């Protein structure tokens, strides 16, 4: 190890409020230029930090961006429980951190290309960002299954991500913004008809 490397290693790593400032700067650069054009130099400039400061905390661009994305998402709380699958889906997918959250969608849009071009980032993003969201949605369907709302033959690995997939396809490919109204329509016209048990007709008597 060179004297310069020894000196750098001896300096404390960035943390606390300063760390958060750098993560916010990373998100700003990400939203501005996208993942492919984001550089450690650009983030350092936006955060008014040295590139060496960044590398003491994050070894690669992928690790920095992934942590920034996870930090803005925040921890995933317990899946909402409203008493019906419809209510749970609306509560989960609309509002802060959901599919109507403009910043969350903007960040996701800026990293789409990285999912096919950067194996390190893609693996971390799928495990730490997508994975918990998929699991939280699965919980909603499992509760509905326990209540007897949905069919017993459903493959939840296919059904669970369907709502997010439809909404994001409309957002990024068709240019139709995700709103509470549009998400509710997808729930009512696509998801629920596909998963709910057929209603039992009442006796004519």
UniProtKB/TrEMBL annotation:
PROSITE patterns: HTH_TETR_1, HTH_TETR_2
Pfam families reported in the protein's UniProt record: TetR_C_11, TetR_N
Organism: Aeromicrobium panaciterrae
InterPro entries according to UniProt: DNA-bd_HTH_TetR-type_CS, Homeodomain-like_sf, HTH-type_TetR-like_transc_reg, HTH_TetR, Tet_transcr_reg_TetR-rel_C_sf, TetR_C
DNA-binding span(s): 39-58
Protein name: AcrR family transcriptional regulator
Domain HTH tetR-type: 16-76
Keyword Transcription: yes
SUPFAM superfamilies: Homeodomain-like, Tetracyclin repressor-like, C-terminal domain
Keyword set, alphabetical order: DNA-binding, Transcription, Transcription regulation
Origin: domain of life: Bacteria
């Amino acid at each position: 190890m060179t004297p310069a490397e020894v000196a750098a290693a001896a300096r404390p790593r960035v943390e606390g409020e300063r760390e958060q400032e750098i993560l916010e700067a990373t998100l700003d650069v990400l939203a501005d230029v996208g993942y492919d054009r984001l550089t450690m130099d650009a983030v350092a400039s936006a955060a008014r930090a040295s590139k060496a400061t960044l590398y003491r905390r994050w070894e690669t661009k992928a690790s920095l961006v992934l942590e920034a994305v996870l930090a803005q998402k925040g921890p995933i709380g317990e899946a909402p429980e409203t008493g019906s699958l419809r209510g749970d889906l609306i509560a989960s997918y609309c509002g802060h951190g959901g599919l109507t959250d403009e910043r969350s969608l903007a960040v996701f849009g800026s990293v789409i290309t990285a999912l096919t071009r950067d194996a390190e980032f893609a693996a971390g993003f799928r495990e730490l960002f997508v994975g918990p969201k998929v699991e939280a949605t699965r919980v909603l369907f499992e509760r509905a299954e326990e209540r007897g709302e949905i069919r017993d033959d459903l493959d939840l690995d296919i059904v669970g991500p369907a709502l997010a997939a439809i909404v994001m396809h409309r957002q990024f490919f068709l240019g139709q913004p995700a709103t509470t109204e549009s998400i509710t329509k997808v729930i009512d016209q696509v998801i629920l008809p596909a998963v709910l048990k057929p209603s039992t007709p009442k006796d004519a008597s």
